[in-house]
Amino acid sequence: MNCNGVTRRVSSYIDGELAATVVEEIELHLKECRHCTILVQQTRLTVHLYYDSDLVDFPVEVQARLHETLRRKTRRDRK
Amino acid sequence: MYCATLAIRGIEPGLLANLAKTLTLSTPNPHRLPSKVAREDEHLLVTAAKSGDISAFEELVNRYERKIFRLTMNITRNREDAEDALQDAFMKAYSHLDKFQEDSRFYTWLVRIAANEALMRLRKRRPNQVSLDEPMEGEDDFLPLQIEDWGPSPEQRYAQTEMRDILRGVIDELPPDFRVVFVLRDVEGLSTEETAEAVGISEAAVKSRLLRARLKLRQKLDRHFRQDGTH
Predict the structure, then answer these.
(1) For A37-69, what is each residue's pLDDT tens digit?
(2) Closest to A37 (Cβ–Cβ): which among B11, B22, B207?
(3) Is B59 on the interface with A (CB under 8 A)?
(4) Domain residues for A27?
(5) Closest chain A residue to B211 measured between Cα atoms?
(6) CA atoms of A4 and B21, how far apart (whole Å)
């Protein structure tokens, strides 16, 4: 496995989706290659930083309009 | 468990220690969504809502409205479209609740509806930028040329608000095709199969776009996180 091979598989590798033999080949390469080791670590950290991240504010007026819309809908359906 | 996996995969011990601090409490797991208690509770709320208990449906709305707005904003990047998609998603969920078979979690079902609503609006606004096809990129265009160490965990170097701004700025720069898949898989925690179904593309296309999205984000974050002062 070379650097290109690792880069192409880095996503599947960190998701644990690869066959054991491929994982073995990647890890053999990682032992020798600092470049790819950092790539794997940083890609993993990138995924971690974004996971369930709260990057969007939920404005109160958006919430109020949603509740009002749903109230109207449920009231209409009850009749 | 996640750290154990890292150790098995032969990561350098020093870097592992930094990552371990970061990853112990919160691990990226595509299937981690609210706790087991919340899941059991969710089922009871759905059953009650199906039998006409409006307060049970309101409780589901209260529980997920923030996350659904985050999803529709992250997909559309347009506040008006995001709000419309949010409202329509909950209206549709309410109207079609009797058709929900409970073969998936309510939350996952809701995310699929909301993703469709958001995607519809994104495609309308940017018709040529969200395709159902594989991206036509060269083989090597996403391979990083330079890799620099980020040093100790960036999470410890930046204040929470500063980190939030960096992450938000960087994800905004992703092409919509990649952003949608990344948001569903890595922010909302849908599986590859669920993401493929929500976007209307193959699982292979999800994996391909996810790889490119993650590599592009890593590359863009590198501008902020590298320690050699070249950013």
Answers:
(1) 999 999 999 999 999 888 889 999 999 999 999
(2) B11
(3) no
(4) 3-78
(5) A11
(6) 30
The Cα–Cα gap between B61 and B49 comes to: 11
State mean pLDDT over B189-218. 92
> Is residue B198 within 8 Å of residue B190, measured between CB atoms?
yes
Partner-chain contact B19 A53, CB within 8 Å:
no
Domains in chain B, ordered, with CATH?
36-125 (1.10.1740.10), 137-231 (1.10.10.10)
Which of B19, B30, B186 lies at the smallest CB-CB distance from A45? B19
Number of domains in chain A: 1
Percent residues over pLDDT 70 in chain A: 97
Is A55's CB within 8 Å of B189's CB? no
Q: Which residue has the tokens 């609503």?
A: B117
Residues in chain A with CB shorter than 8 Å from the CB of B218 are 39, 42-43, 46
* d(C-alpha B43, C-alpha B46), whole Å: 5
Which residues in chain A have their CB less than 8 angstroms from residue B188's CB? 52
Pick the residue from chain A with its C-alpha nearest to B145: A35
Quote the pLDDT of residue A75.
80
The ipTM (two decimal places) reads 0.89
